Amino acid sequence: MNAQRIGEPQLVEEAAAAVAGHTRWVDDFPSTGVRFADLTPVFADGPSFSAIIEALSSVAPDAELVAGIDARGFLLGGGIARTLGVGVLAVRKAGKLPPPVQTCEYRLEYGTAAIEIPGDWLALRGRKVLVVDDVLATGGTLSATVELLERVGAEVVGIAVVTEIEALGGRARLQKYPLTSLVRI
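Structure tokens predicted for Adenine phosphoribosyltransferase (185 residues):
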């Protein structure tokens, strides 16, 4: 594992060490041949969680809003937003918000999924948004989130994740944006 050097280098290194030291690896989950990186122990450790929040907050200090993706992105988004002194937007899985909503459907390896944000009350036009999630794999969810935010007029100023699985190539789908991953595996 190695840390991507974006943001304040010392903060990124501390966070990467915390992730490496507390991640629980689970073989053959959720299916045979997959090695799952469980970040639950990382987030449950106060100093580790704080290190992650500080490092990810340093990558987009001009953000006016943080968009956290369902569900672990909510944890990160809330902490980053508090650190930056801005609001947080929960980007939800389809069917979790009452209408009206703005929806973006995207393809998965095995079907489709959709994400949503409130459709009538949230003024995003022209706002600078940092998008956060726990893992970048194929980039489908992050790409759909960016598309949805831009569709409603937001300006995505960066994308930040804790862990990036390089072999799945998600970074290529997000080349247009500054992307920070604390740990790349």
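Residues 1-5 have pLDDT under 50 and may be disordered.
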